[in-house]
Amino acid sequence: MTTSPHRIAVIGGGVAAHTLVKAYGTVSAAADASDEASETMIDIFTAEPHAPYRRPEVNKGILLKGKTPADIALPGAPLEAPGVTLHLSTPVTHVDADAHTLTAGGTTYQWDQLVIATGAGPRLLDPTQNTWLNGRDVHYIRTPEHSTALRARLEELGADDTVVVVGGGVLGLEAASAAATIGAAPVHVLEMADEVCSRMLPPAASQWLRERHGENKVSVTCGLDADALAAEIDRLDPAVIVVSVGAVRDTMLAEDAGIAVGAGPGGGVIVDPAGRTSAPDVWAAGDCVEVHGELDGVEVTVRPEDEGSARALGTIVGRQLGAGNTAEAGSYLEEQRRGWTNQYGLMLNTVGEAGLVEGRREQVELSSPEELVVYSVAPAADGSGDVVVGVTTVGRSPEVRAAKGALGTVLAA
């Protein structure tokens, strides 16, 4: 016998949503022959007009290489499975966690389980506080439309023009790399922190990236306060400004529904390591979340912001839903964190906790214009030496490939 149809609603059409639907299908297929099996209807709501795509490719594919949204789309098979409906250009405007309903496109939908995968958007600067924005051609990057418009603009510029990128994080540096590759205009990166990518990378890797940009005629200036930043923009008088100063997690629907959200401007929808929110039958995954849990006996809070994390937590949530919330589907905090960026044809990869915080140090194993190996290390709990907690690499030589497996290795004191 079968039970009544089970309805799952997913808000968001990115990597997390796509991955959880795929994982759900894999797990639930094993239960199809069971007497407990039930028909499941999955509704995916996205405000965008595109089918799910790889968010990193907005920079790496569309901006740099001129690809289209179709070129960077995720495989369609999971979305074409029986019972799955993708609602494009259909933003959700309200969630009632108590009544188990949501409103989208003027229609109310009932759900048994809800997944919030609303992602994040670029942090927008206030032009009243940043007057250098006024009257200028300013671009933010998040969607395919953003990158398509910026690429077209960069192609128009000549050597007498100037491009300024405000923000020296990964996305800002990728935009600078693309601008230097696409057009003839000089490119300047302006960063308020003391180094580029300082949260993601150890100092030696940040310096390595700066050197690669310098070799490609991109000027990078760090350590600017607000006044110095404004003065530098006035001096450069850029034809185009690209602003990349972080992301804001989209928590509005969760907050309005009374679901717990982290404090501060970077706060996300609070979930446990399995993706459960504070509301029954409501889950969350992707860039919109912050994960609270215990790791090695210590309470931690992690705010993911990469494709690998979206895949990892999306998979965990999908497995939970596919097994009726009974399976040991895994813990996000036990997943290895991975990141990557491609600039000037060189792929920089990170695994683990590559950025340095108090108590950690870096150990440079290899550094050249084409290759890099940097370990981020912390004292081993038993005092036997330092343990590798993060690895940053560039290149494909045997030495580099071997170094990628060093995570967790104890280095002799």
TrEMBL record:
<dbReference type="Pfam" id="PF07992">
    <property type="entry name" value="Pyr_redox_2"/>
</dbReference>
<dbReference type="GO" id="GO:0005737">
    <property type="term" value="C:cytoplasm"/>
</dbReference>
<protein>
    <submittedName>
        <fullName>NAD(P)/FAD-dependent oxidoreductase</fullName>
    </submittedName>
</protein>
<feature type="domain" description="FAD/NAD(P)-binding">
    <location>
        <begin position="7"/>
        <end position="292"/>
    </location>
</feature>
<dbReference type="InterPro" id="IPR036188">
    <property type="entry name" value="FAD/NAD-bd_sf"/>
</dbReference>
<keyword id="KW-0274">FAD</keyword>
<dbReference type="InterPro" id="IPR023753">
    <property type="entry name" value="FAD/NAD-binding_dom"/>
</dbReference>
<keyword id="KW-0285">Flavoprotein</keyword>
<keyword id="KW-0560">Oxidoreductase</keyword>
<dbReference type="GO" id="GO:0016651">
    <property type="term" value="F:oxidoreductase activity, acting on NAD(P)H"/>
</dbReference>
<dbReference type="InterPro" id="IPR050446">
    <property type="entry name" value="FAD-oxidoreductase/Apoptosis"/>
</dbReference>
